[in-house]
Specification:
The complex is a heterodimer of chains A (349) and B (323). Chain A is 68% helix and 5% strand. With 349 residues, chain A is mainly alpha-helical. In chain B, a hairpin with a 2-residue loop joins strand 1 and strand 2. Chains A and B meet through helix 1 and helix 6 of A and strand 6, helix 3, helix 4, helix 5 and helix 6 of B.
Amino acid sequence: MSNTLVSPDSRPRTDRRPQGTSLAGLVGVELRRLWWRRLTKVAVVAVVLFTGASVYNAYSQSSPERIAQQLDEYRILQQQAPRIAEECRQQQAVERDRSGDQSIDFGCDEQGQTPTLEQMGLALPVADTITDGIARTSSLLLAFVALLLGASFVGAEFSTGSMGLWLTFQPRRLRVASTKLVAAAVGGAAVAVLCLVLTNLGARMVAVVNRPGSDLDLPPVPALGEPLVVLGLRIVALALGAGIVGAALGLVLRHTAAVVGVVLGFAVVVEGIVMQAFLQGRLQRWSVLKNIEAFIERGTSYFAETCGPTSCEFTQQTLSYTHGWVFLSSVLLLVVLVGLVAFRRRDVT
Amino acid sequence: MDVAVRTVNLRKTYLSRGSRRVAVTGLSMAVPLGGVHGFLGPNGSGKTTTIRMLLGLVRADSGTAEVFGEAVPKRLPHVIDRVGAIVESPKFFPAFTARQNLVLLAGAIGSPRQRVDEVLEATHLRDRGRDRYAGFSLGMKQRLAIAATLLKDPDLLIFDEPTNGLDPAGIREVRDTMKSLGAQGKTVLVSSHILAEVEQVADTVSIIGHGSLLAEGRVSDILGGAGAAGAAQVRVGVASPDRAAEVLAADGFTVTRDDGYLVVGTDDPAAVTRSLAGHGLYVAELVPVRPDLESAFLALTADEGLGSDADRAAGRRTGAGAA
């Protein structure tokens, strides 16, 4: 073998220099790298397993046998209600006689009323309802997975040192950073879409498999507050934003573990302690988690102290959907700006 | 002179935990177009920082740098496809295969996929293309790094300490590769603190210490300067060195001791043998001490407290002719 590491003439046989890559082409390269990453595959498998487990849980909760058993329990409750009310009235009468106070009220009329089937959660298993339930509960988890993917996608480049090599091929830093943020966004969104699609497919199967027989008399399914696709779009947007935030934090902190540490630290210290312990709950208006909840649930509420002229009391405060998305968009913009500035100005060693 | 790289008063200070460390201070140097240019200096002298500044990885505090006449880092995107660089050790994604790593880099510059196969073949890595980078030996990592630089068909190749950690065969391969690339008309800028190695391949050198230029020019000129800086010397092996040293000193020679040998300053080696033979002392070995890059380097850095103890030991061994 030759003593040189290269053939005597290693020039390209294509006889032309590389022509450079468009921004879209560069995003394509980044997406390819994202797809090749082991963590991406692990995340996809984890999401599939989580979705499968959620769908299985929905299946076992809505099986005809389970519904029939719940209906039996409901009927027993209906039969026992008059007797319970009667016993209550007797005890109430005894107490009134003993105390001489005829105003004593044990609330026996309420005790004699049975809840409705809807209140008992008994309804036909319908795909959209199942999907809606699973999607809402998985939204935060999907956001965290997207954030982790984004952070690791950028952090690994710094920790392996390959960012320096990459910049010797693409020295325009803002362009490089932008393509990484876009790829992280697409990755986060793709994970959310995968979860929602699988959930919906699974929910449809559950609805078909668990369709109860005509002997079960169930109430009509309450209509969802909004089309399922609108909720899905919000969850995808949340995951997309989380992916971008993860990648932007990766540009600042340059290590996946550092990003995870900061995010978890923020969740525990700021969200878990500071938001609750200071200003009598009024800080919750600026809580990221509360605003995520407001964004996904189209509004939410929290308890905080409000003071009138004479006294203070804890009252329920509403956090609107608009406040949620405006706040989250602002946070996203701020983190991205910090990430881009840090990446553009700091040395890569 | 046409230059591939030029720096003028380049300066870089690192801030770390409240302390300032000047890595490069007013460095002005020029790398001529074509051939191999050695960039020499002891560890910590600012070689890697300078290279990083040329590649836009590190921002200079002040001064200017040009690559092929384009100011960097501002105009770096206009010349980056003519520059291939390996800074310190090769750094790729360890979990990806060699081919995957190259495909990504090729995609970043719009190089056709076919070029990946070409460079894998050119660097004798074709059969290992599907192996993970993490499992590569250091020599293979170095090959892959060279393959990556060749994706661009660069006119300027920058190798930063390319032989670090390589076995003798690997060192020879890298050395021959640099020679070969230089012979193809490319400009090869190789930084190293192993001077003997650079001496074998470099046509021109820049020597820096404490972040500033100490000497620059053709290797032959630097060596000539080193030779001229002190008298010619010979290394003498003799059975009774103590007695021989006394005799030579009495005859007016400058004599120093070196591991049982005598290093004698003289332009006339025959005068040394005559002097010793006249006193019944017979020379067993007599070797002219040639000025080499190491000697020149040590001479240049001696006043600045540069170089490691090992470097100094090496300087004593070779006579440090220019000192």
